């Protein structure tokens, strides 16, 4: 798996030759596809060949296209991510409700725990309340501890006047970072032969990424931390690069330090193992 995130911000032509991404603008640049994790095209005047698009899909390299404001608007997802995709989808349809409820309970506990750990790391008082909520999470989170914890968490992190619905600089930054996370999760789900539409808890008929929305929850604090530490800056090109670079963040999972892109793969493997096997298995969390 590659480690580079390529951001295209100038007028250029992207093409493919001998396993290399070719970028033609004022000069010529070549990057081997094995090094690339994700390509983000910010410039609406950039062009890309269909041959390159097909090679990116074959090698499971994520391609994200941005709108006129340079915010992510769409991404490329291949039809087939695994040789036995049909079998994986049939298994996904048959996941038992009991197993999904247990999985969601664990994911919510991890999310709240990670939020509390971030607050403690930033030396923000009040994180103990979130640890209380973590211990109160029931099967399928029937009492919505996730929602209660989120309200306390965001108020402690960004102030009592903060609301996720406000179109302010903080929310724009969060949404941008969350989109990068979502794309990373999408790629791993599809590469393993599953589909993103069938979720564990999210069931919105208009959401193409219900399962991805479920699985990205525990990683949101990684973006929240970047936004908190840069809240005094304008949401400009450099700020976006900091959010994009979350993919290269090192975190500890299963006792080893891993780049986020690798940690996500290990985490998702543990989730699918839990959902598909009635034997005892564990959904993994990470450490900052």
Spatial arrangement of strands, main beta sheet: 1-5-7-8
Task: State the CATH topology of the largest domain.
Answer: Four Helix Bundle (Hemerythrin (Met), subunit A)
Number of domains: 2
SSE string: EEEEEEHEEHHHHHHHHEEHE
The unreliable regions are: none
Number of helices: 10
Cα separation of the termini: 22 Å
The assigned CATH architecture of the largest domain is Up-down Bundle
Polypeptide structure, described:
With 288 residues, the protein is α/β, with parallel strands linked by helices. The protein has two domains: 4-75, CRISPR-associated endonuclease Cas1, N-terminal domain (Ribosomal Protein L15, Chain: K, domain 2), CATH 3.100.10; 85-287, Up-down Bundle (Four Helix Bundle (Hemerythrin (Met), subunit A)). The chain contains ten helices and eleven strands. Strands 1-5-7-8 form a four-stranded mixed beta sheet, with helices on both faces. The chain has a four-stranded mixed beta sheet with strand order 4-3-2-6. It starts with a strand and ends with a strand. The model has no long low-confidence stretch (mean pLDDT 94).
Write the layout of secondary structure elements.
Blueprint (H helix, E strand, L loop, with lengths): L3 E5 L4 E5 L2 E5 L3 E5 L3 E6 L5 E2 L1 H9 L3 E5 L5 E4 L9 H9 L3 H25 L5 H10 L8 H14 L10 H23 L18 H6 L4 H10 L7 H8 L5 E4 L2 E4 H17 L9 E2 L1
Parallel strand pairs: 1-5, 2-6, 5-7
Antiparallel strand pairs: 2-3, 3-4, 7-8, 9-10, 9-11
Helix pairs in contact: 3-4, 3-5, 3-8, 4-5, 6-8, 6-9, 6-10
């Amino acid at each position: 798996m590659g480690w580079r995130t390529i951001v295209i911000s100038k007028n250029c032509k992207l093409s493919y030759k001998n396993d290399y991404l070719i970028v033609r603008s004022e000069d010529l640049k070549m990057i081997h596809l094995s090094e690339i994790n994700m390509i983000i095209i910010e410039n609406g005047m950039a062009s890309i060949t269909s041959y390159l698009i097909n090679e990116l899909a074959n090698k499971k390299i994520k391609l994200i296209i941005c709108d006129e404001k340079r915010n992510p608007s769409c991404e490329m997802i291949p039809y087939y991510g695994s040789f036995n995709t049909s079998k994986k989808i049939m298994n996904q349809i048959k996941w038992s409700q009991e197993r999904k409820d247990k999985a969601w309970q664990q994911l919510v506990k991890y999310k709240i725990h990670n939020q509390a750990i971030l607050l403690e790391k930033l030396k923000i008082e009040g994180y103990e309340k979130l640890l209380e909520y973590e211990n109160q999470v029931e099967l399928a989170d029937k009492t919505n501890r996730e929602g209660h914890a989120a309200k306390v968490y965001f108020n402690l992190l960004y102030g009592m006047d903060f609301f996720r619905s406000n179109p302010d600089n903080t929310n724009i930054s969060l949404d941008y970072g969350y989109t990068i996370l979502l794309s990373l999760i999408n790629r791993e789900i599809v590469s393993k032969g599953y589909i993103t539409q069938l979720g564990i808890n999210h069931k919105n008929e208009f959401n193409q990424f219900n399962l991805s929305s479920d699985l990205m929850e525990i990683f949101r604090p990684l973006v929240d931390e970047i936004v908190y530490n840069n809240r005094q800056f304008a949401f400009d090109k450099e700020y976006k690069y900091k959010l994009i670079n979350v993919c290269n963040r090192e975190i500890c999972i299963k006792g080893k330090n891993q780049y986020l892109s690798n940690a996500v793969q290990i985490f998702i493997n543990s989730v699918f193992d839990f959902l598909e096997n009635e034997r005892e298995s564990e959904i993994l969390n990470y450490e900052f």
